[in-house]
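haha ok so turns out i had the wrong file open the whole time. this is the CORRECT one, sorry everyone. sequence first:
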Amino acid sequence: MKYIQLVADGMADLPLLELDGKTPMQAAVTPNFDALADRSLVGSVQTIPAGMRASGDLAWMNLLGYDPNQYYTGLGPLEASALRVPMDRNDVAFRCSLVSSDGAMLLDDTGGHITTKEGQTLIELIDKKLGGGRVKFFPGDGHRHVMGWRDGKVNMMTTPPRDFVGQSLEGRWPTGDGESYLQQLMLDSLEILDDHPINQRRREEGKEPGNMIWLWGQGRPLSIPLFLQMHGKTGAVITALNAMRGLARAAGMRAIDLPSATGQMDTDYLGKANSALSALDTIDFVFLHVHSPDEASYEGNLDHKLRTIEDIDKKVVSTLRRGMEKRGDYRLLIVPSHATPIALKTQKEGPVPFLLYDSTRPHTQSHYPFDERAVEEAKTQVEDGTQLIEMLFGEK
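then structure:
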């Protein structure tokens, strides 16, 4: 038996007037989702533990069977794990986002979707100018980078930049132990990067600059049990995001590198599906992560969200179904990591639908469509998200 967990970040949504009261999952043309739902267990699951803020990294951890209440230390340590940042137990890692700012407002949380090459050049300069001593900056991908702080401060509140795009920086600076130091680093970065040739060129091209760092998501090193020890299965992760790769590395799972996976609408859906099929020739389980619906929601772009859902159905699910039918028995779990409603442009707490298909034992009881209606109507309601992977493996 082989196992696949397909996780679509932010695919769940709310009803929209533009869709006559339907959600994007309900309105999208998804023949593969529909065919599977007729033979699968469809229910709802709480991917984010009660009382915790909705975010992809918490959901991924939960869906792999790791209780975030017990293991989660922050987004920064996940990114640091992916970049193999050396960390002692008292060190702190921050997500260091390259953002666009005029010094008073946050204009764009991705630095205008700055490229990896541009972002790495700018972060290398920041490390040269602001690093040294106990602080070092590590280049990552696009706008996502890491700051390591040896024997650093962790007891503070920080704000994800996505939460206040188009709003004032005032009131969003870190608060708590070490707040003035972090704020000064961010303000200094604006002085260093604002007139950099890369940002001058980006402005000339009509793009937002990556002219400031924003520090958030801090935490001490992540330590979790190995996935093989927890579940007795070998596993791999396919993703475009370093944070997910970092979680895989901490869990002792294989992180499959696919350069054409971007996390955006132009991601290589077919490449991801085919990479999953190839991996399943030698391992037991693949966590296949698709980030594009989340990005479409943050853009507030309904057309893009519908297209990402349909691309997942047509290019990922269809390819997996055809490929696995040739390989033997398998189970396929499909679940949004969380809801990211178009209307809110941010992640939302609450249960989301899931679909669990077993090629050896089609579900013959009551059937529900694989969309948000299952949250209210389906009989199977999973309150502890860590149990979903146990259901996939037949442990529950």
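The longest strand covers residues 92-101.
again sry for the mixup
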